[in-house]
Structures are given as structure tokens and as C-alpha cells.
Amino acid sequence: MKKKLTEIAPTLSKAPTGIAGLDEITGGGLPAGRPSLVCGNAGCGKTMLAMEFLVRGATQFGEPGVFMMFEENAAELTANVRSLGFDLDKLAAEKKIALDYVHIERSEFEETGEYDLEGLFIRLGHAIDSIGAKRVVLDTVEALFAGLPNHAVLRAELRRLFRWLKDRGMTAIITGERGEGSAITRYGLEEYVADCVIILDQRIQEQISTRRLRVLKYRGTAHGMNEYPFLIGAHGFSVLPITSLQLDHEVSVQRVPTGVARLDEMLGGKGIFRGSSVLVSGSPGTGKSSIAAKFIESACARGERALFFAYEESKAQIVRNMRSIGIDLATPIKKGLLEIHSSRPTLQGLEQHLVMMHDLVRTFHPTVVAVDPISNLTMAHDDAEAKPTLMRLIDFLKKEQITGIYTSLTSGGDATSAPEDSQLYVSSLMDTWLLLRNVEFTGECNRTIFVRKSRGMAHSNQVREFVVSDTGIDLVDVYLGGDRVLTGSARVAREAQERAVSTLRGEDHQRKLRQLASRRKAIEAQIAALQAEAEAESEEVHFVIAQETLQEKTTHQNTSAMAQQRGGATGTNGQMKQRR
Amino acid sequence: MVAAAAHAATRYVLRLYVTGSTPHSTRAISNIRKICEEHLDGRYDLEVIDISQYPSLAKGEQIIAAPTLIRKLPLPLRRFIGDMSQTQRILLGLDLRKAESSSAKLP
After folding, report:
1. What is the rounded CA–CA span in Å between residue B19 and residue B67?
2. The pLDDT of residue A483
3. CA within 20 to 30 Å of A338's CA: A224, A249, A578, B37, which one?
4. pLDDT number for residue A569
């Protein structure tokens, strides 16, 4: 006894199930060496869960297992699980799995006194020994209650059976039908299997069925208490992984361009962080899908892989429509860099959509995922339910370092109402939020964009006009006219007006310069005329002087000649006389 | 007595599956032997099989409860579980009571 006590490790040892998500919820798997109860209504996947536990145990963890079935026979079960890719015949031949079909027909039995179920023990023991099993599944042991009339004996024997499994160190799954009302199982099996109880449930809400799993009880360990949606897909059972329990994902400092240069400029000049989540919200026709498509196109152009989940348009339609605005999605599809998955949001429950997305992301390994639009996914669900599931998706992508771009349709159409109200409260989960709006002014409706928030970077607070043309999408500065922004024609008119004003001003300057030049020319001409005049005057003066000098000289000569003629009289007197 | 004689000629093939020498097993063996000797004198073939020795037989014969008695012949196949202490039930199940009562009425 003492030895046994010391053998028990402080933490419960666990047997991994290998089922995607379940090991995360249970913190490593089912209690090793103990029986666990899996219960649920018909058709909710008990057998599949148990089978996958066994097959994964045998193939991945080197623990062979015995599947003892009470309802289906071995051939039926083998056929059923083949659809999940499990080849039981092969596993049985390799002695990894032993199947035993226990058939009980009430009408064949006649009770003739006291009995026990030692036969069952011997069969199980024999099966376990034949392959050295470590795992056991009893599916559905409750069928014995219908087969054997003496329930008192049966209960005692089942109690002994579970004890016996524990003593043999078998990690076991016992499946049971869900009971009425508050009862966990119809025949109270939970009384005997008390270590771990998992409840499976299938619920239909608004005509969409969702399967859910809940760990009701797990003795001696912490476990996720919530209901987790699960799916039985082509790769088996898959519980939506819980990544939102912890916020410890790695973050990247790498920046990714959005494909729209002006938008990158608004986001600190470099674009968004790799692995961050971007919400593009807006009313119908504001260009949300175009932004998402542009982002994907640019990612693919860099050689990255991208997944596009579309819930409004078909693949061909998206490719055609995006081509019309100069976004080429056909080339990356051809190169295998892009996959577009179009489906109706009402095709299946939100959880199933998300599980499907998980599967696709896991197999395709994209670096960019776009969901267009995220709001459609939640159309058929109430917000309270939608948020945690969306949160899981967003967290999952973040953890995988995948950049997520989610568009969201808002009901409030114009700028006056607040489209922020209808964001399913997911905006708080987003790192970057681009808000697109229609602005109606002067008889036309134009798109505007602004960065509502962007964590971890300096971002622009400016509203830009968002222009979609056949050459692509671009952002243009808006004009502030009075108390509102001007977009579209109003912006163009304003631009033209400004251009005209500046042209006029330019012409005015030219004219002034010309005037100045001609004035200068006039002045220069004036100067030249004046100079000419001055020259002319000076010439005149010189001429007069010369004339007068000559005259004087002539007079003097005449006087002297006269004086000579008069003989010695002075010129002066003669002159004086002459004057008199 | 013709019908009774025909009945009396029917050969019974019985298999009793027990698990070791538990009280149930030993009681069942002695009980069924007694019934056979009293009602099927000389026309029965009883085999007692310990499935703890031959566990693979348990799967083939769909044995769950122990002890289990299987009437292989005459057909149809019948199963009895328990320590064979309720003699009347066994006789009814083996169609031995019916034969007796009808033979009693005949003359």
C-alpha cells in the first residue's frame, strides 16, 4: 500500500487523446489508467470520440487499445470510421486494436438463478492480453441494461468492472446515453466512473446544428469549464482549440504594406504589423472587400500565401469584380498562393465555420487570412455567442502569426449615424481599425476612409477620400470647405478653382514684369531722346560760338583793314566813331 | 405415446460455460447435471467449459454472464444464465415440461 501511494505523482498523469483541441482543454488528455465517461445523446459523436482516442493511442502514442462495442458490430463500426480515415482492419491485423462485439438479445436469455458478468471480464481481459492494450473503450455499456433483466446484479458488476479496469491500469472511455432532466446518464453510470466526465451535446439553434463538448468533471486537475464546439470532419474529431485562455502570443515587429501606398502612409508610413488583426468596417459599398482584396494581392505579389474566406460572393465573381478595379487575383490563384473559399454563412454553425477555417489554415499555412465579411458569420447568431468564437479565431490567427483582415458590414449607412455601434464588439480585439464611410454631399456619395485606431504605431488622424477606379484604389486628400470635408466632385471643383486662382496669379505676375520692362524701355528711350537733345543743343552752342568767333575775327580784320586805310587811327576810336 | 416417444428420442446438446470454480460455477454444474439425469437420461450431451481456461471461446459464443448454458440442439438456440437453481424455468426453456404434460394427457 505504501509503495502504491508514493507511486502516485503529485500531478495526475494523463493519457493524450491526440484529438485536436481536447488535450488542450483537459490539460494533456484523459486521466491515465482510469476510466472516463463520455456521455451524450444519440448521434452526437460519442463513438467517434472514443474511436479516435483509441486509434490515435495505437498509432501515435504506442498504446494499443480494445474497443468493446455493444451496439454496432465490428463490420459496421469499421465501415463507419473508415470515412474518418481509420483503417480498423489494418490496425487489428497489426495487433494495435482489438474489436469485440458484445451482442445481447433480451429474448434469448432466461435467468435461472444467480449469475455474474465474469464472462465479460474474461473476454475483455483476453482482448487486453492478446494485444497488450493500454486503452479500453466500452461503447455503450448501457446496452447491458436493456439486455439483462437483473439491474441490481448489473450495477454491482459494472462497479466491479470499472474498479477492475482501474486496477489493470487501463485508460478507458465508457460511453453513455444522456439521461433525462438533470441526470447525466440514463442509468447513472457517473456514480461509478467519477474521475472524468465529458458531455457531448448537439444543439439546434435557428435551424443550424452545433455540436459542443464540455468537461463536466475532471478529478484532480484544472480543466476548461466552458462548452467548446466541435466538429467531426474528414480528419476526425476536432474540438475548437482554446487559444484565448492565455494572451501570450509572440508579436512581430515586422511591418507589412497594405498594398495601398497612401494607406501605409497613414499607418505610420510602413503599413500594419505582421500577425496583427485589421478590421475594415463600413456600410455597404464603401469598398471593404476591395481593401481586403488589395491587401491579399500585394501579399501574394510578395510571394506570401493567403486564404480568402468569402461569404457574399463566389470565387469567380470575386476574381471578376476585383479585376474590374485593377486587382489581379487570378494570377496568385494559378500560382497556388491564394485560395478563395466561398460559402454561405448559413451553411453551418458559426463554430463549424471556425473549425473549418482552422483546418484550412492548418493545411494551407497562409500568412494572410481575409474574412469577408466577418459580420455575415454572425448573422444567424446572437452577439453574446458570436464574440467568444470570433475571439478564438482572431487569437488563433494571431498565435500563428497570421495577419488577419476582417471586413465588417455596418448597418448605419451615412456619416451622421455611428457605425461603431454595430461592430459585434470585436473592435476591441482588433489591432487596426479602418473605418470607411459614405459621405453624401452636393448630390453625390463619396467614400472616405480613416484610421480609427492602430495599436503600436503613430497613425494619421486625417480623413482621406477613398477612390476606386479601374486602375486600382487610392487615397486622396480631402478638402475642408467650411465645416465639412469635400470629396468627389466638390473636391474636384475646389481643386479646379484653386488651380484657376493660381494660374491667374501667375499671369498677373507676368503682366507686371512685362509692364516693368516696357516702362524701362520707355524711360530708356526718353533718356536717349534727352541725350540726343543735349547733343543737339551743345552742337548749336558750339556752332553759334564758332560763328560768333568767326564774325569777330572778320570784324576785327575789317577794322584793322579800315584803320590801315585811315592810316594809323586806332581801331577803337574808329569803332567808337562808327558807333556814334 | 408416439409423440412423446419422438420427443424422447430428441437428442440434447448442451454447453455450460463457467468461470473457474466459483460458487456459482460449482452450483450450476451440479444443478444441470441433476436436471439432465432426471429428465434427459441417455439422450443428452453436456459439455462444461471453463472460459477462464479458454477465453477465446467466450467471444465466439457471446458469453457475458457466467454461468451460461447454451442449448445447441435441438434448435432454436437457447441461453440460460444463472446457477441453474430455478429448475422449472430450465425445464420450460428446454421444452421438457411441455413434453411431460402432453404425454400425461395423451392416454
Report:
1. 7
2. 63
3. A249
4. 52
| Cell matching residue A136 | 479500453
Where do the structural domains in chain A lie, given as residue ranges? 8-239, 255-477, 486-510
B positions 42-81 inside 8 Å of A (CB): 51-52, 55-56, 58-59, 62-69, 77-81
A8-239: which CATH number, 2.40.160.20, 2.40.160.50, 3.40.50.300, 3.40.50.2000?
A: 3.40.50.300
List residues bridging with A233 in a β-sheet.
A236
Q: What is the pLDDT of residue B69?
A: 87
Residue B75 burial by CB count (10 A; 0-12/13-18/19+): exposed, middle or buried?
exposed
> CA distances (Å), A255 to each of A65, A275, A457, B102, in order?
50, 9, 10, 98
Note the pLDDT of residue B105. 42
The 3-state DSSP class for residue A161 equals helix
Residue A149: what pLDDT? 80
Please list every residue in chain B whose beta carbon sits closer than 8 Å to the beta carbon of residue A119. Answer: 17, 19, 51, 58, 63-66, 68
**Fold match between A8-239 and A255-477?**
yes
**pLDDT of amino acid A518:** 94
Q: How far is CA A12 from CA A15, A192, A195, A514, in A?
A: 10, 19, 11, 98
Nearest CA-CA partner of A266 in A472, A466, A446: A466
CATH superfamily, domain B2-105, is: Glutaredoxin (3.40.30.10)
The parts of chain A modelled with pLDDT lower than 50 are 1-10, 244, 413-417, 419, 421, 571, 574, 576, 579-580
Is B105's Cβ below 8 Å from some Cβ in A? no
CA angle B43, B49, B51 (to 5 degrees): 155
Class of residue A444 by CB neighbours under 10 A (exposed 0-12, middle 13-18, buried 19+): exposed
CATH superfamily membership of A255-477: P-loop containing nucleotide triphosphate hydrolases (3.40.50.300)
- Distance CA(A286)–CA(A205), nearest Å, equals 32
Q: Does B94 touch chain A (CB under 8 A)?
A: no
Domain ranges in chain B are 2-105
pLDDT in tens, B25-62: 888 888 888 888 888 777 888 888 888 888 888 888 88
**Residue A120: what pLDDT?**
87
Measured in whole angstroms, the distance separating CA A483 from the mean position of its chain's CA atoms is: 35
The whole-angstrom separation of Cα A225 and Cα A231 is 19
Q: Is the peptide bond before A258 cis (omega within 30 degrees of 0)?
A: no
Name the grid cell of A309. 474566406
pLDDT at A530: 94
Chain A hits for B80, CB-CB cut-off 8 Å, are 109-112
User: Could you give the C-alpha distances from A330 to A256, A306, A339, A516, B53, in angstroms and in order?
Assistant: 22, 13, 10, 64, 70
Q: What is the DSSP letter of A116?
A: B
Q: Which residues of A are catalytic?
A: 71, 312
